[in-house]
Amino acid sequence: MSAPDTGDRPPGAAAGMSSQAGLAAALTPVLTVAASLLGLGLLWGLAANAWPSRAFPGPGMVWQVLLAEAANGELFYHLGATLGRVAAAYVVAMVVGSVIGVLLGSHRSADRFFAPWVVLFLNIPALVVIVLAYIWFGLNEAAAIGAVAVNKIPNVVVTMREGARALDPSYAEMAAVYRFGLLDRARHVLLPQLQPYLAAASRSGIALIWKIVLVVELLGRSNGVGFQIYLYFQLFDVAAILAYTLAFVAVMLVIELFLVQPVERHATRWRRRPA
Amino acid sequence: MQPVGGVVPLRVDIAEKIFRSAQGVSIKALQDLSFEVRQGEFACLLGPSGCGKTTTLRILLGLDKDFSGSFQLPEGGSDRIAAVFQEPVLLPWRTVEQNVRLALPKSLRTKNLDGLFDTLGLAGMRALYPAELSLGLARRAALARAFATEPAVLFLDEPFASLDERTAERLRHLLLTVWSARPTTALMVTHNLREALMLSDRIIVLAQRPAHVLGMFDVRLPRHYRNSQVMSDLLRSFQQKFPGVA
């Protein structure tokens, strides 16, 4: 069927075809994700229809609540509050954890001394840190963010310590011979080598942090997604609980797709070898 | 111009260098190693593999400070040192050109490097990442980085090891071309006698571990006279002077 067409196709058409194929190839993963999520939603809808209950609302009802909360501005106010805490705790945990991790990874005696501390902090339950932070420092924003960061720091330390142990000394020696400045060493020698470890710590970090932030908000703040979930728990409003949860998961997904992944693609561009 | 031999730019006087293994075994790598390389001279440290040549170089590069003795690096000019390591050691996440420019002092980062890249046949490769280069090209990039800094002294640690002979030979010629255009005191470590005879003004012959100087072999002939006939003559007279070496 298509054979007679190829004869009168203008020269540019071949390129058009290939770019169409490229577009299709780029869209396929997106469509797969969409179909997968749609399937999950459908299953949820069916289940909610089969067992109708106030404790198990269908996707339609959750969507209604979501729209209502968005319309009156509540949703964005609380999302914003939570997102701000997540961002602050993330930055504090990554910076402090990376510095400690790299120091421990590059000084063996320090590592031997502090390794038990790391294990200790790794195993203190998040709840204990949060409660203690509120008791010692009061029910304030700094205590909340600090408590979340302290929960995350040991994980970052462990990951970055491995990163520092894996540093290739030949790059540092080259930098020493050619007298790289301190800033150049950090930017061109150290950070690119630590990048995979930073990415791993970030990935697991954001997911962990936002869950802990909800607990912090539930226990001692008067805004944020965690506070709202606690409120609707007392009202037994499952639709609202799900609406807030899904809204925040969506926000995290957008961050992953439009912030984390592009940054990672940029950081690892040198790994790709053109055919 | 300083008269050749008028000053002693690179003076090495290492009394002792001992390696201690994790099990507490100590190995004496260098003992009473002393030699000089005159200004603008290309010298080779020749010795059997494992005799401590690279150890010597690491001490001179300031990467190993655990030794007794002293050394004096050439002064004047840029006062900088440059090194070409056994592996190219290019930063894989920076392009060839960025790798070269990063080695330069801040004030010279933007200087024109077209001539150097052209000579080394890297003109079209400046924007490539090291992973996209062959080993031979990566070594050229390492040479470009070393010469771009216009060092007061250049150290080379078997820079052509693990290359096939044809590529190595081409790179030796390239090295001579760049070096002749920007002559600088150079010390190259090698276990390849032919390479040493082809490139150097003077060969410093090292003994087995612990390394010390067995003797010197001066190649006074200009390099462009060193054809295959002359090379085999040089080889013969070297072997007469140092029987059993290489």
TrEMBL record, chain A:
Domain ABC transmembrane type-1 per the UniProt entry, residue ranges: 79-259
Transmembrane region(s): 21-47, 87-105, 117-137, 231-255
Localization in the cell: Cell membrane
Main location: membrane
Gene Ontology CC: plasma membrane
Membership in a protein family: Belongs to the binding-protein-dependent transport system permease family.
Protein known as: NitT/TauT family transport system permease protein
Organism, as annotated: Mesorhizobium muleiense
From TrEMBL, chain B:
GO molecular function: ATP binding; ATP hydrolysis activity
Coiled coil stretches, renumbered: none
Pfam families named among the record's database cross-references: ABC_tran
InterPro entries from the UniProt entry: AAA+_ATPase, ABC_transporter-like_ATP-bd, ABC_transporter_ATP-bind, P-loop_NTPase
Keywords: ATP-binding, Nucleotide-binding, Transport
Keyword Iron recorded: no
Keyword set includes ATP-binding: yes
Segments forming domain ABC transporter: 10-233
Family stated for the protein in its record: Belongs to the ABC transporter superfamily.
Full protein name: NitT/TauT family transport system ATP-binding protein
